[in-house]
Amino acid sequence: MTARRLVFAAANLLIYVALLTALSHALGPSWLRPVLLACAAAVLPWYVLGLTNGTIGLVRLLRPPAPPPWADAPITARTAVVMTVRNEDPARAIARLRIIADSLTATGADDAFGYALLSDTDKPVIAAEEHTLMQAWQREAPDADRIRYRRRTDNAGFKAGNIMEFCRNHAAGFELMVVLDADSLMSGPAILHLVRMMQAQPRIGIVQSLVTGLPSPSPFARLFQFGMRHGMRSYTVGQAWWTGDCGPFWGHNAIIRIAPFRQHCELPVLPGTPPLGGPILSHDQVEAALIRRAGWEVRLQPVAGGSWEDNPPTLPDYISRDLRWCQGNLQYLRLLGLRGLRPVSRFQLLWAILMFVGLPAFTLLLVLLPLAGAMLRPAHPGWLATLYGVFVLIDLWPKLVGYCHTATCRRRLERFGGPVRFLAGVAAETVFAWLKIAITTLHTTAFMVALCRGRGARWTAQRRDATRVSWSEAARMFWPHTLFGVLLHAALLLVSPTLLVIALPYTLGSLVTIPFAALTANRQIGAWCVRHGMCATPEERDPPPEVARLLRR
Question: Among 3.20.20.150, 3.90.1170.40, 3.90.550.10, 1.20.120.530, what is the CATH number of 79-211+250-310?
Fold first, then answer.
C-alpha cells in the first residue's frame, strides 16, 4: 500500500506542477498573471485527483477481481440494520426498511438480523405516524423483538449523535450494524456480502458499499444519476486501489463493527460557534479517520449492485444538500491537526475540503475572464488553447472512462438501453453537467462568503420525491445567477466573441439558470424520459426484486 500511495501522490504532484508550469509560460506578462495562476492553483487539485483516480480505475476495470474465498461462508455475526430519520415521510422510510428485511428473509439468513428505526423527529404528528407504522410492523412480524423503534427527545450531535446513542444504549447482542439513511435501499445478498467480509477480516471496522441512484421520474435526478453511475465507477475503483485500509465512509449503506466504533468514534465538538464551530455536521469521514487511528481498517467495496439511494429530484434540492456538505466539509479545517491520524486519513479530510475551496477561485476566474481577454496578451496562444482543451478533458475524464467502459461491452450497453439511447444519454448528461456546475459553483461561492459572515445552512429533512419547480419559484431563487450571467456574457461579447464561445461550457449555466431549474423538474419532460428510456439505468430497465417492489408503491 505504501508503494501504491507514493505512486498516486507522485502522479498527482507531477500533473499538478506540469499544468501550472505550462500555464505560467503560456500567460503573457501582466499584473493579472499571478492572480490567474493563484486561482488555477486553487481550482486544479480536485480535477487532478479525478484524473488520476479515473485512470487507475480504468486499468483496474479491465481486470475484474475474482470472487473472494468467503463468498458463501455461513452468517454467524449478529447484525442490526438501522435507519436514521428526522421529520421524514414515515411511510416512505419504513417501507424501505421492510423491503430490506423481506429481502434478508428471502436469503434464509434473517435470524442473524435485527431492525431499528432511530428517530430524531421533533414534529409530534410525524412521530405519532412513525410509532403507529412500527407497531403495525411488529404485530405482523413472527418475531417482534427483532424490530425496534427508538425516538430521542433531542437532536444532540445530529445523525452522528443518533447512531452513537444507539451503539451505547440499544446495541446489546449485536456485533455489526448496517447504517441507512431514510432514502437508502439495500438487497439482502448485498448485506450478506458485507457481513461475510467483516467476518472474514476481523480487523475491519467499516466497509462502505458503492451506492447508486434509484430510478426516478425527475429529469434532474435521471440526468444526474446517469452521469454519476458512470463517473463513480472508475473513480471509486481507482480510489479503493490506493486508499486500501484507509478508505472513505459516506455515512450510509455501509456496515460498521459496533464495539470499536462505540469506543473510538465519539466526535469532538469544535471550538467556537456555528457555522464552522460546534457539532460536526459532516460526520462520516471524521469517524473513518478516528476508527482508523485506533488501528481498525476502513474499506471501500467499489462494486455496484444491491446498494441504492435517491438522488435530489430538483436543482434547489441538490443545492440545499450541497451547501450542507460544504459547511460540514469546511469544518474539517479545524481537524487537520488532530493528533494521531494516519497520513491517508488526514489527506481524506483535506480531499473533502478541496471539493469546495476551489469553487470561489473558479468564480473569480470567470469574473476576471473579460478583463483577461481585454488586457492579457498570451506569450503562447496555442499553448493556452491546448491547456484549456486539456482542462476540459480532465474535467470529463472519470465519466468518459465510465462511458467507454460501458460502450465497449454489448451486454453492458444493452443494460443502458442500447447504443442509440446510451449515446443520447451521454450527450444530454454532458450538457446537463456543464450547466449544473456553472450554477452550483456560483451558488456555493455566495454561500461560502455568507459562512465567513457567520451564516450557515439549516439542517432539515430533504425532499426525496419528484416535485415541480415553478417558473416563478425558479426566478425568485435564481435571479442573481441570471443577472451575473447577463453581465458576464455581455462583457465577453464586447471584449471577444471568440472567447465568449470558448467559455460557454463554464458560463452558460448562469445565464439559463431559471429555465434549467424549471425544465429539469418538469413532470411532462420526466414522463417523456421514462417513456422513451432516456438516461435509464439498469435498475429501471430490469429492476431487482427490491427495486421493483419499491417502484410498485
Answer: 3.90.550.10
